[in-house]
Amino acid sequence: MDVGIDRLGFYTPKKYIDIVELAQARDVDPNKFTIGIGQSKQAVPDIYQDAVTMAAEAANRVLDDDNRNEIGLVIVGTESSVDESKATSAFLMDLLDLPEDVRAFEIKEACYGATAGLQMAYNFVAMNPDKKALVIASDIARYGIKTPGEVTQGAGAVAMIVSQDPHILKLDNKSVYMSRNVGDFWRPTFSKTAFARGKFSNEIYVEFFTTLWKKFQAKYNVTAADFDTMLFHIPYTKMGMKALRTLEGQIPDDKYAELVDHYQKSIEFSRNVGNLYTGSLYLGLISYLVNGDAKANDNLMLFSYGSGAVGEIYSAKIVAGFDKYIDSDFIKKELNNRKKISVADYESIFSKELENGDTTALSTVHDKFYLSEIKENERLYKLTN
Ligand code: COA
What we know:
Elements: E1 3-11, E2 15-18, H1 19-25, H2 30-37, E3 41-44, H3 51-60, E4 71-77, H4 88-95, E5 103-107, H5 113-127, E6 132-141, E7 154-164, E8 169-179, E9 185-186, E10 195-196, H6 198-220, E11 229-232, H7 237-244, H8 253-266, H9 268-271, H10 280-291, E12 299-306, E13 310-318, H11 328-336, E14 339-340, H12 343-351, E15 369-375, E16 378-383
Parallel strand pairs: 2-14, 4-5, 4-6, 11-12
Antiparallel strand pairs: 1-7, 1-8, 2-3, 6-7, 8-13, 9-10, 12-13, 15-16
Helix pairs in contact: 1-2, 3-4, 8-10
This protein binds coenzyme A.
């Protein structure tokens, strides 16, 4: 039985800043941010948005009257959740009108959470073929104003429905993984922003990729020639390239050139949105499927990495007719219709948040799902009509 991704939906906030303007405001050569880091725009979430509202927006794009009642598992991968106890998925139950006979919970392991969720969903569907799983990656990536990581911030969510006979991507059930206690990135419970040993995190990321790629090749007796495309976790678009570059000179030049060309297609959306943390790999997948020359039966290698750290490489195959199940025009239109705001306005939004007793001014809401109120320290959400 084939199991994999049947639907893919993406949401990012409607405001963004221009990375050249950010560089100018920080007195940095813009080429460092646009070429050295590889970013063009950065999504800025509104005060009424968080991991819950963005997860709801992305999931709302993949759920319909037919598949909603077949869902038996709801997993949200996030490292920017709003509650230390209640899972993001619990808030989604009524926002998305999900059936009650589901297991709904949250997974945290930095940017690896959604991959853990996807693999769990694979096993769930393999054991329960009449059921589907909803896996959502939702995050606001925040390092703080005037920090080295500021240029690698971003926000958004990716939702996936996992089912038998999937319409987009068949998972091969081939995977290698590793975990190690590493101090490359962390966010203590008291802090809204992350702490990172940035350059160390780059080194660990590349080391995990090279180790896992060796393991994957040995375990399944494959080489780069067996893959049409390699997709990477993309905290910023230069990062995946650092891993891919380790293959230069190790594989035939034309294969390397093809993989680099496909990588460029996979980073187009991330370049214009920024870091989605655990959704980044899956935004790369969407970007490749929408902007690349993906064909039926193409073999993909996917490298997932979450600081702290867990890494995994797995493989998958593109399903014929996949393009009918991703609304490419809608995604492109939404990205093009976003509003550019000034760096000063971004700084002002960054420093504000709803406090206990506050309600959201409805006139400022430009999305379907929003944080409406914080009452007795409980976050309450609503839908606009
Ligand atoms: N023109 C073009 N490129 C330039 C440049 C210029 N004027 N100035 C610098 N660069 C290049 C550097 O050569 C470097 O390229 P390289 O990485 O290929 O060597 C790149 O821009 C970044 O410069 P660097 O001095 O290393 O930047 P930094 O000290 O500001 O740190 C990060 C960059 C990514 C480490 C930092 O943004 C960070 O900590 N981010 C958060 C952590 C993270 O995202 N980790 C990812 C792993 S999951």
